[in-house]
Amino acid sequence: MSNQFNNEDSLLHKRKERIFFLYRNYLLGKTLNDLEKEITSDQYGFNEKQKEFVKLIIDNISDLENRMKKFLPEDWRLERFNFLERSILLNATAEIVFKKKNKKIIINESIEFAKKYCTEKSPSLINAILDKIGN
């Protein structure tokens, strides 16, 4: 039983690492080329699977952002979200689209990140968008 919890903690930790990698690079205004160089370095401690998944996100960032834009509230643009909210949305969208894991868990953990690190309204907006992605 404890292996299951350790595995869940590990998955949560990996998700958090990816979100903060994306966030940091949004803040610094890194180019896609810069991002690809950074994930191959060992400064983030990503294992090979993590590196591959982050590279998949980077390679498909336009498509993932377009998917997110389809489900934004009518009067919103993606640029209105702060960088951390966008990083949470981007990571979760990629997980839903590419990993096809349990969508409910991905959404719930994304909401928890938003509750902890974002504004009061962020969790409900993130929930509304992610709930529609992948349907």
Protein architecture, described:
The chain has 135 residues and is an all-alpha fold. The chain has one domain: N-utilizing Substance Protein B Homolog, Chain A. It has seven helices and no strands. The longest helix is centred in the first third of the chain and has 27 residues, at 2-28.
At a glance:
With 135 residues, the chain is mainly α. It is built from 7 helices and no strands.
Q: What count of structural domains?
A: 1
Question: What is the string of helix and strand elements?
Answer: HHHHHHH
Would you identify the CATH architecture? Orthogonal Bundle
CATH homologous superfamily - what is it? NusB-like
Largest sheet: none
Which features characterize this protein?
mainly alpha, 135 residues, 0% strand
